[in-house]
Amino acid sequence: MERIITIACLVLSAAGLAYLKTNQLEKMEADRLAAAEADSIAAAEAAMAEAEAAKFHFVIPHDSDAASDSIRIIMTGEQSGDPDNDGIRFQWEQVSGDYLMLDSDTNAAASFSAVNGEYAFRLTVTDSYGSSASDEATVKIHAEPNASPQAVINLAAEE
Ligand SMILES: [Ca+2]
Ligand SMILES: [Ca+2]
Q: How far is the CA of 151 from the centre of ligand 2 (A)?
C-alpha cells in the first residue's frame, strides 16, 4: 500500500513539475513577446520622431490679424548642380498635402503661400543628356499662435 502511495506521489510530482515547467516556459515566452513588442514600439516612435525632425517646420507669425492665416515659403534648388557642369533644368511638383499654387515650377526657386498643414514637394533636375535626380522636402506649417486675453475685475467703494 505504502509503495503504491509513493508511486502515486512520484507520478503526481512529475505531473506537477511538468505543469510548472510549462507555466514557466509560457511566462518566459510572454515576457519575450512583450519585450519584442516594447522594442518595436520604441523603434516606431524613434522613426516617427526622426521623420518629424526631418520636416521643415514654420509657424505662421502672430500679427494681431485673425483674418490672415497663411505664410509664404520659398524653396530654392540653387545648390543643385551637375558634376560635368552641364546645364540643368528644374522641375518642381507637389507630391502631397492640399493643393498649393507654385509661383513657378521650372525656375531654380519656387514659392507658395499656405495655411497650416503638411505639404511635400519634389524637385527634379535634369541635365542636357537627359539624366536626372530628385530631392523631396516635407514642409509642416503650424497655425498662428495666439494667447488668450485675460479678464481682470477690480472693485472699489464709491466715495
Ligand atoms: Ca494672422
Ligand atoms: Ca551631366
A: 65
Ligand 2 center–CA 124 separation, angstroms = 14
Ligand nearest to the CA of 131: 2
The number of the ligand nearest the C-alpha atom of 145 reads: 1
Q: Give 107 Cα–ligand 1 centroid separation in angstroms.
A: 29
Ligand 2 centre from 74 Cα, in Å? Answer: 26
Per-10-residue mean pLDDT for the chain, 159 residues long? 58 65 86 91 92 93 96 97 97 98 97 98 98 97 97 96
DSSP 108-156: SEEEEEE-SEEEEEEEEEEETTS-EEEEEEEEEEEPPP-PPP-------
d(CA 10, CA 8): 5
The pTM score is 0.70
> What count of Cα atoms within 13 Å lies in the side-chain half-sphere of residue 82?
17
